[in-house]
Design goal:
Strand order of the largest sheet of chain A: 4-1-3-2-5
Helix content of chain A: 25-40%
Order of helices and strands of chain A: EHEEHEEHH
Low-confidence stretches of chain A: none
CATH topology of the largest domain in chain B: Phosphoribosyl-aminoimidazole Synthetase, Chain A, domain 2
CATH superfamily of the largest domain in chain B: PurM-like C-terminal domain
Shape of chain B: globular
Oligomer: heterodimer
CATH architecture of the largest domain in chain B: Alpha-Beta Complex
């Protein structure tokens, strides 16, 4: 099944400051599925969500509104149409390796790693 | 260990830390500090005990009591307050639920006071129910095991069940601020609104001493409560059974999946 997906990579002072909690809140309020994970080595978080084009647009605006309250140095946003990863919920992960070892997260963790490497973040 | 954006703040923090340590008779041991240029506070507390610490998991028996030294979930008003500074729509949500901002501020201040007070009185009471260093633990007269309800909140009972290989049944989930824990769950402010810090202690003891333990804890100004019991030890599938109202306080489905809700 094909999905609209949004991948965000947000860098700055975003680790262990409650940033992921806000991302989780917006995703849950909008009933979106996916995850947010720390990328410690790059001082970034990665966000992956699936949903309608419209909901992903609203979600990205909400996430961008957080940049006023946190010290953000860089934001990368990738909107695409991809195969669904069938997440049943929106979850918070501490590390990419936790995501890689989860049932559904292995493929996504590899994709995120590839994006992070392309952008020279890891 | 402290770190701060500038020397003035660092000095102020250090003075506060010294005052706090003096108040409770603690000795500060200086360690090298990372100069990260941002606010960072951390403490590892080392204590000494001349009795056997309550780590007698193998002596836990069926029908022993689960006691908490006070209600937990104190992080709910703190998280709502901090989240509302970043996202002001939360203030509207509070209004919609008929909650006054002044109530939130009052609860937040109460939570701050609670978590900044060391659990010394609870620790002293627990000490009274421990065996001497050269004594065998007596399951009917000593506390068998303890843990603290911190960040994981209700999930500590899942961890405890696994650690002592038992089925734990809770009949009550005593929260300091149930109204705010429920709000934090409903509006997805916290995945687990039963979380605390510097939290309540969980005690497992025989029912013979539960009553006097509770009396002693009350005398220290705490709000202890028997909240459940050990349903079965040596369980092949250790688990936590908790009442249905837990879903009002935990939004994280992963955490709920570890709990058998009845």
């Amino acid at each position: 099944m094909s999905c609209n997906t949004l991948t965000l990579i947000i860098c700055g002072d975003v680790i262990n400051v409650g940033f992921r909690r806000h991302v989780w809140r917006y995703a849950k309020l909008m009933n979106l599925r996916g995850l947010v994970v720390n990328v410690d080595e790059a001082s970034c978080v990665s966000i992956y969500v699936e949903g309608s084009e419209e909901s992903l647009k609203i979600f990205s605006e909400k996430i961008m509104s957080l940049t006023k309250s946190f010290n953000i140095s860089n934001v990368d946003m990738i909107l695409s149409k991809d195969s669904c990863k069938s997440f049943e919920d929106f979850e918070i992960y501490n590390y990419l390796k936790d995501l890689a070892s989860s049932d559904k997260g292995f493929r996504l963790s590899k994709e995120l790693e590839k994006i992070l490497k392309t952008k020279c973040l890891i | 260990m402290i770190n701060a954006p500038d020397q003035d703040v660092l000095e102020k923090l250090y003075q506060n830390m010294r005052d706090f340590a003096n108040r409770y008779g603690f000795k500060i041991i200086d360690v090298p500090r990372p100069s990260r240029g941002r606010l960072l506070l951390g403490a590892t507390v080392v204590g000494e005990i001349d009795r056997r610490p309550p780590m007698f998991d193998d002596h836990v028996k069926d029908d022993m009591m689960i006691i908490v030294t006070r209600p937990f979930g104190e992080l709910a008003p703190l998280n709502i307050y901090l989240a509302s500074i970043i996202d002001q729509s939360i203030i509207n949500d509070l209004e919609r639920e008929g909650i006054d901002l002044s109530d939130l501020i009052k609860a937040k201040d109460h939570a701050y006071t609670t978590i900044s007070t060391p659990n010394i009185s609870a620790a002293k009471t627990i000490y009274k129910y421990l065996p001497e260093i050269n004594e065998d633990p007596d399951p009917e007269n000593h506390i068998m095991t303890t843990t603290d309800v911190t960040g994981p909140g209700i999930y500590v009972f899942v961890e405890l069940a696994e650690k002592i290989k038992s089925i734990i049944e809770l009949e009550d989930i005593p929260l300091m601020f149930p109204k705010f824990s429920e709000f934090a769950t409903k509006y997805f402010i916290m995945p687990n609104a039963t979380a605390g810090t510097n939290g309540a202690f969980v005690i497992i003891s025989h029912r013979n001493i539960a009553e006097s333990l509770i009396k002693d804890l009350r005398r220290e100004g705490l709000e202890p409560k028997i909240i459940g019991r050990i349903l079965r030890t040596k369980a092949s599938e250790p688990r936590l059974r908790a009442p249905r109202n837990i879903i009002r306080y935990v939004a994280d489905k992963k955490i709920l999946s570890y709990i058998k809700i009845y």
